[in-house]
Amino acid sequence: MKIDGVKHNLVGRVKVPGDKSISHRAIILGSIAKGLTTVENILISEDTFRTIDAFKAMGVNIQIEEGKALIKGVGMRGLKKPNTPIYCGNSGTTMRLLSGILVGQNFSSTLIGDASLTKRPMDRIIHPLTNMGAHIKGIKNTYPPLDIEPTDGLKGIYYEMPIASAQVKSSILLATLYSEGTTKILENKSTRDHTEKMLKLFGSNINHKGNLIVMNGKYELHGNRIFVPGDISSAAYFIVLALLIKGSHIVVENVGINPTRTGILSVLKEMGANIRVFNRKLVNNEPVGDIEVKYSQLKGININGDQIGRLIDEIPIIVVAAALAQGRTMIKGAEDLKYKESNRIEAMTEELNKMGACIEALPDGMVIDGVKELKPAVLISHNDHRIAMALSIAALATNGKSYIQGYECINISYPDFYTTLSNLLNDV
Ligand code: S3P
Q: What residue's CA is closest to ligand 1, atom 9?
């Protein structure tokens, strides 16, 4: 992909596709609920198709019509043994959340992934699920493929989260649906709570007491009507580009602003960004709003471990903002970035430094000293959708032509990214 920097600013109103995390959860809960679930504004992308195809392979009728999914839920016990291993592609969310459901089934199953997913750690779900009584194994008990065998029964557990991970938390909560007794999860650092919110919507017995989640299993779920808000992780690219290019002024409409996801807005505001959230409402228990952004001069700040869970997927684009901010930005407590679709600490450091940025990689983050401008370069996506999109934004903030090799991986979460971007760019 060739990207031509300069000579434009970003003006107008934009809608981003449905939230990826919420879309996965709607497909999962809709499939095991009783009756019809409709999911409007569902994200249609490679990752969500992995979850859709997984449930189709287990006998669930799912139809996609004009951005809407119609799911004929089969009930908690209605899934059928798939004929082949379930291919989760690049999607950690599919593999980790699905494992929580599959450990409760009376059939065996195998979960496989692509080259990137096959290198991602699964011990983080294998340990708690095994404590619940599940029979789940990976290669060296750490990596996919995962083999799951039926068990005599699952039981609720008390689990203090050793890492901040919504996928791990969600996997345990989904297994709890099939468990006797109560599960209690203590989260010392908050992470996205879409699973909790949606379980409640579908009729589950789940409650929050401070940072303790308490859930009882063996409740039947009931089909629902879901509207998926726009994905703040996709909005983040346009928000940062508008901040970086003089004269820009945009409104991103109908974005999910769940406080467990808005770390990016807090961080950018602290950096001096002119951002306003308005038209706030609650849709299916999820806060939604419009986000207005105007060009701003940014300054460096410190981002620490307590904030990471609320902005984990936005760090690549935050690094782009920090690379062009005044002064130093320090990101710490983000070791988990090494285990995402790529090693995001390494990928962002290597690629932005090619453009003249001043970034030092740390074992758990980065030190970024802001520079006045970035230079065009030939950049590599590391086959990671969020790296490809963050680098595209960096390339647009230069004075020339850059190339993004391997840009096609944007299809994982945002197939229309470049079309929407070019519609927003105004020649000046
Ligand atoms: C997700 C949780 C996060 C995030 C991922 C989506 C989810 O992963 O990075 O893109 O939908 O639960 P971790 O739970 O591994 O932090």
A: 313
